[in-house]
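Job type: complex structure
Entries:
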Amino acid sequence: MVFLAQTFFQDQCNPFLLSFIIKEILNRKKMKQYLKIGAWMMFASLLFVSCKDKMFIKHLANVPVYMDYELFRSQVRYEAPRPIKKGGNIYLKDNYLLVVEQNEGIHFIDNSNPSAPVIKGFMHIPNCTGVSIKDQYLYANSAIDLVVIDISSWQQPAEVARLKDIFPAFLPQHNTNYPMASVDKDKGVVIAWEIQETKEDLQHYPVYFEGGALASFVDVNGPSAGSGTGVSGSITKFSIIQNHLYVMEGNRLYPINIANPLSPQGTVPVVIWREVETLFAYNNHLFMGTTTGMLIYSVSNPNQPNQIGVINHAQACDPVVVKDNYAYVTIRSGNICGQNINQLDVIDVSNYAQPILKETFQLVNPHGLGIDNNLLFICDGSAGLKIFDATNPLTVGNNLMHQFNNINAIDIIPHNNVAIMISSDGISQYDYTNPAQVEFLSKITFQP
Amino acid sequence: MKHFKTIFLVLGLCSVFSVQAQDIVEDKIKPAYFCELNTGFLAGETVSGWMHVKNGFTLGKFWNISFVTGIEGHRPGIFIPLGFEGRFAFNHKKTSPFVSMSATYLQNTGTRNYGYYYTQVDRTLGFSGGAKLGVQHFFSKSVGIVTSVGYRYTFVEQNGMSNICWECLPYETDLLHHMNRFELTFGFIFR
């Protein structure tokens, strides 16, 4: 009885119904009454049956941690400098180097002297994964929102505008060893995940496909970025072309009109049916590094970029940079990157509609890359930083000029003869004024 | 095949009990052993069938209790129930209405994958319980028929490695089934 009562209660079936019926049965003596009771019993059985089956799944999962929307949107503030724990995207604007602390905010580093950079402050932006700058305005994502920060005074940056809910599918990075539990957006913004045992109705299974988990972005260094923009590393999902900011989030490309920075306007996102990892703007085109190839999008209609070219490769991760008629794509393997391929592809993009793979060079585990003048910088993972002579793009992989070992290089910005490289343990800078003799300048070490 | 052997064995035991019980059927004091062979179906979101063998004895004029086993089909698979049923008859005549309640543990009959949720099911178990209203009618001192309608709740828990998350390695998962069914029964009583 206890078992039945419990289960009825769990199932939201009326536990008193059954006891009522039994009581009625026990009080009756005549057969007619039995028949009546039988009819009632039949009716009761059908009532119970009308309780639908329920299926639950119980397992360890990434369970969302919520923050109230209002509270979340009041979190942006400039704070005293703090040590960098784990740097993400890097961005260079004038004499300032910005380093994204994943999901926490942006470090402002005065880099007027690359030999002695100084961390000046920290812009706290919850769930920020990328940054981009045009003129005096910094654009950063904050989970589902885009925030605009006035940096006319580097000492006192302040939020001046916010485009709410522009990235509705944003979810923070989760532990990929476990599935994601359901998200209830009415509870607030998902700011993190916790691994917990969860029991869920199988009919409302997790939101695997709604959002992409990664919304990182940094800006681009191509000539079409327009005046007033800075320079980003190659591992970025933010890009500015003229008066439009392009953000890749999940499998959607969001064009955002920033002609009026104080009132950015979002438009209908473009769905990209591939897993896009990096954006690179060059010559009024967007070059997308995806896990299965490189896509070229035209922004002749800035609100609705359209694909004009593609070159496929096997499943792998692949940042891309472009210079003149050649795109340089590093392809690497890894947990989420697929097969065992680690190489540099040199692609002829003189005709954007028909990119052609020209050469391939073997590498160890390449991540970000950058090109300046005729030097190609490749962060080759555990093999460190490699600098190639790219005078002849078709032989670039054979012309290794320098290699800096013992660093786990991730991404790089080569700009004005200074290469700013982020590795797993810090940010190092190198002077390549004399390409024959690249000199180490400084390093900011992370303090996890 | 193994389960059919078990069922035949129980049927054999039923016959023995029936013969032994004939002489004491009218005895109000000593327990009267009986055996019942039932079949029926469970109807709800899905429909499945079952067969039960019950061995029990009477307790006084109106009550009896029996041990239940057999074979049952449920949404997640086929199970052998092991449990008890208590029955209250409203009179002591040839034809008597009754109410009964049962509770059984469900032992699964082997590893069975459940759709795409699992790469491998390591454990399946369940419980079932319900209440019925029915009528029993005896043609003679030792043979009768029984029919009833009622409600049955069944809970089945499956544990295994799931591969439903495309980006994860298979991970341990429990799949919990709560099933509500209308139950119709028909059977024979030997005592």
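Summary: The helical segments of chain B are 2-21. The radius of gyration of chain B is 19 Å.
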